[in-house]
Design brief:
binds zinc ion, 2 helices, alpha+beta
Length: 107
Amino acid sequence: MFCPNCKYEYKEGILICPDCGEKLVDKLIEEPKLNFDTVELCDVEDEIQAQFLIFLLSENSIECFLRENFLPHSRVVLGEKRKYGTIIVNKQKLEKAEDLIKDIYKK
Ligand SMILES: [Zn+2]
């Protein structure tokens, strides 16, 4: 059983999420299928950076989205060294995307 809010899995027999009170469901709704292969572009420090990069990539017609490393309603970070989130892009446009962010993060 899963909580649709927290995305946590619970043992059989538990019907209500102990964290948020939501009714548990048998299966979480699958994330929509993308029509392109994805690859990680870079980690982001915070929401502002994430939104900026997504705006920039979208402006350059690179399909992208933010994979957040925080579970909803919690401050638990998935994985030790993970930042706020990771920008995922269309694999076929990775090179172009890397060029774009190179210009910004040039040292
Ligand atoms: Zn819950």
